[in-house]
Specification:
Helix content: 40-55%
Structural class: alpha/beta
Radius of gyration: 20 Å
Number of helices: 13
CATH superfamily of the largest domain: NAD(P)-binding Rossmann-like Domain
CATH architecture of the largest domain: 3-Layer(aba) Sandwich
Strand order of the largest sheet: 3-2-1-4-5-6-10
Number of domains: 2
Number of strands: 11
Order of helices and strands: EHEEHEHEHEEHEEHEHEHHHHHH
Mean pLDDT: 91
Length: 346
Amino acid sequence: MNSILITGGSGFFGRILSRWLAERGFQCTNIDLLVHNEQDTPNIRHVQIDVTDAVQVNRIFEKHHFDAVIHCAAMLPLSDTSKTSLWKTNVQGTCNIAQAAADHEVKKLVFTSTSCLWGQPMGRPVTEADPPHPVDIYGESKWEAERCLEQFRGRFDYVILRIPLIVDAGRMGLLAILFEFIEEGRSVWVVGHGRNRYHFVLASDLAHACECSLNYQGSGVFNVGSDDVKPMREVYQSVIQQANSSSRVRSLPRNLTLVAMRLCYMLGISPLGAYHRRLIADDFIFDTTHIKNTLGWAPTATNEQMLFRAYEYYLAHRDVIHNLHSNSTTCQPAKMGIIRLLKWIS
């Protein structure tokens, strides 16, 4: 498989994925609603397309032959995100891509799904056999997108990669707030004791998983994530120590904090939605045995290693980051909102 269509190619992960594949000899066509600010290269072309527009999607398949599609385009559940737009992008966009792939006899489709298919901690690592139970619209939209792909079984092979938080150099969003606290030596807060463990995956490791999926014969579902996942308190402490910061990890009362976070998000004064509340307060670990045994994939970085890598990037590009006006929510720093009050007392 040499010619690859990547949807969401202007986003944080889409850029890393296209470069990863291009360096390995693949011809990549990136499509995204966002304007891409990089020039085409011999192995990467950029086309501005809205995946919710079936006519535009079909036209790109008519114009170019693709051996495979890696579908990464999605809308995240931010406070100013329209639920209608999110559902249309994540569900109808996926159905449009799948229909065009089937109509133009594409051999393989790889879909990046999410850990948000589960809204409550299960007390153990989640396997591919566990039935999804989303509790917010983002998780519901990704689950519906997975079911859309099932309708095309037999017309092309598809691989669904269920992924946790993607972290690497250049990943900002809410991490930029954490990094600002660490750089300034302020307290870093955990909810409760901070013993919850939450899965991350390195962006380049995920790109490798996508490449492995292209060579998989048949259809399947695979969890991806790091090894040796430590409690969030320990992860933060590791980054603070490596950064030689004077920050300390301190605790907030769990129940009161979660209620306040939910209320502030509803009022539009906090960037911390349901997904972020889970990351901060709950356990979520994937069982990654299946992808290791079947595709020969393995992660190369722990949570604390990849978080420190992102922190080093933040330090090296701090001024640019805080003046960045990007359409990608994961590449620019999130607005603090009411979190600024917490910073003042930290």
